Amino acid sequence: MASAPSPTSSPPPGSAPTSAPTSAVVTGAARGIGRAIAVRLVAAGHRVVITDVDAEAVAATATRIGATGVAQDVRDPASHRAVASVATGLAPLGVWVNNAGVGFDGDLAALSDEQVRGLVDVNLLGTLWGMRAALDAFGPVGAPSGALVNVASLSGLGPVPGLSVYAATKAAVVSITTSVALEAPAGLGVHAVLPDGVATQMVEDMSDGTGKRLVSSGGRLLTVEEIAEVVLGLIGSRRVLRTVPAWRGAAMRVSMLAPSLASAGIAVFERQGGRVLRRQ
């Protein structure tokens, strides 16, 4: 377990607006979706804190994009409170994005104990610890304003063989997001983005099994920039959940309504994903 996080770089002068700047936190942001979100938040004028378990990578990314880098293991609840302290030391908290995640694929029986624990500890508990720290850092009840965004997954809406544990953790993130959105005081938006397969190293590292074929079945992998744009669009909106693309979200919801009948549809998507992978 990582010790308390420590800043590894500082935002360059002039990276934030001169009038009432706010801070923003993005976890798991040394690369991929988190990095793309952080780039957009920096451009929007926030004083951005990015975190990652890879201390060297997060320091390098922070320097390149004009953010503050913090080495963090999201499995540690205290680390989120420490990150919140770094952010509020820069400016009042305006945005918190729980993005850190792992994507071990394989059937439930095939995953190792360590992989199952990692999926639950990082994807679910890491998000819960981040939400708790963020809710506290936004300010006292009745006063907070801002946006808390969780990066979930389309897989959280229905059955995904080959990614069963990963999908379960993302389904839990969807559930907690919808509940906390109703618990949160007025002025504080709680949201989740649920993307289909995204062109990231996590997807690249998946084995060539059912899970990867389903992830690839949308015709093309989404870009990290597309997901960052959706996340920025949720900030300040009343929308709680946003699936990307919308049509895939509708298809997943149908499969969840009748999981006993979903196997035929899943087989079609798996064949389509196989064809996409063969063309790559």
From TrEMBL:
Q: Quote the Gene3D superfamilies the UniProt record gives.
A: NAD(P)-binding Rossmann-like Domain
Q: Which InterPro entries match?
A: NAD(P)-bd_dom_sf (IPR036291), Sc_DH/Rdtase_CS (IPR020904), SDR_fam (IPR002347)
Q: Where are the transmembrane segments?
A: none
GO molecular-function terms, A-Z: oxidoreductase activity
- Tell me which EC number(s) this protein carries: 1.-.-.-
Q: Which UniProt keywords apply?
A: Oxidoreductase
Q: Which domain of life is it from?
A: Bacteria
CDD domains recorded:
SDR_c
Record keyword Oxidoreductase present: yes
Its name, as the record gives it, is SDR family oxidoreductase
First-level EC class: oxidoreductase
SUPFAM superfamilies on file: NAD(P)-binding Rossmann-fold domains (SSF51735)
| Chain segments carrying region Disordered | 1-22
